[in-house]
Amino acid sequence: MTQTDQTDTAPVPPWRARTAILALGAFVVGTDGFIIVGLLPEISHTLDVSTGAAGQLVSLFSLAYAFSGPVLAALTGRWPRRRVLVVGVALLAVGNAVTASAHTYALVLASRVLAGAGAAMFMASAVATAAYLAGDKHRGRAITMVTAGATLALVLGAPLGTFIGGAWGWQAAIWFVAAIAAVVAVVVAVLLPSVRLDQSTDLRERLAPLTDRRVLRILVVTLFAFIGIFLPFTYMSAVFAPALDGSQDKLALLLMVFGVAATAGNLGAGALADRTDPRRVVIGATAGMVAVFLLMLAVRDDFVLAAVTTALSGVVSYAVMGPQQHRVITYSPAGGASLVTSLNTSAAYLGNFAASLIGAAVLARSAALLLPVAAAFAAAACLLVWLLSRPGKAFAAPGAPLPRDAERPAGREGGPQENRSTTS
Known about the structure:
This protein is an all-alpha fold. It has helices at residues 15-35, 40-47, 51-75, 81-101, 105-134, 139-168, 170-191, 203-206, 213-234, 236-239, 241-244, 248-275, 278-298, 303-317, 321-330, 337-363, 370-388, and strands spanning 2-4, 194-196, 420-423. It has two domains: 11-197, Growth Hormone, Chain: A (Up-down Bundle), CATH 1.20.1250; 204-410, Up-down Bundle (Growth Hormone, Chain: A). It has a three-stranded antiparallel sheet. Helix 4 (81-101) runs antiparallel to helix 5 (105-134) and helix 6 runs antiparallel to helix 12 (248-275). Keywords: Cell membrane, Membrane, Transmembrane, Transmembrane helix.
């Protein structure tokens, strides 16, 4: 292995093919996160627990993802990215294998913690690795290629898993996820180059972003935005109950419309983040969320208009994550890209979890209230980006003065510089 100091302007070709491998892994992670929702009745029957208790499998996966991601990213900061990726997706495969073969509720719960930790370990490193492989010019597109893999799980992975579960049992659907994860582990091990994003920093330096108020501001924006996103998404059947009239087929169509639109919004936002300030993309997306959520209030009774607003919601909602990752990488220290991206993804998963709790409380009063509450969280995210983002070009260690010039897109002038070592 040869060691060189490179800047982000020297990508390792061919970045698109290698990023596509990472996107496939993200697809598996997204499928694993969504698939349980469609299998809850069968799981509750097999394990002899209530549907609510079975639903805790989803919550526990989200919490394990949110809290283990930053810790694992910090602890594995010196590892080659290929090793981190392989270990992460392997843990995901093992966790799902245990879920499919377990016969007790407690063991299934434990297996979801293991799968969540593996998913977090993979995704944080996948985003950071894709950003490095693509270089400055295509960083936004590379990041959104990876996150688009997870978004595609809404359109293909989760419905396919639900179909497999209905035909051959829920365990078969979980084995399906485990098998794809195992294939991804082999593909990553064979085809991805060995990339070291951190060769000199210690654990304390890698954790330093936690004390950077600019990073914390971005995390709060992600949290608020994803509470807003998942309030109407999680309770879509309640939001559009008048238009759905109890039809599961109509609900499935709305979910598919949302997934397709979300994929388009995600990819489009990545291209915009490469050409302009990612902060502007986030402001536009969150402002669009406010408008769409309030518009939904007026069209809840009409299925066609519900489908149109659901599509608009998918576009603007999933235009947030890629630019947010783009922004947070800007403030990563040497070797800290995986940590800051894991923190940002953890904030999104916490938003998902918080939305389920807030939504349940709001739903007890009125389903119609979900939309203005979601709009309020989106508006808060928009205002935070507008008002609280402060100038700065790169990561500043605790106690260091912050630069006063405008925030730049990640990886351009003032972006993070990292020591790297690669083996092709």
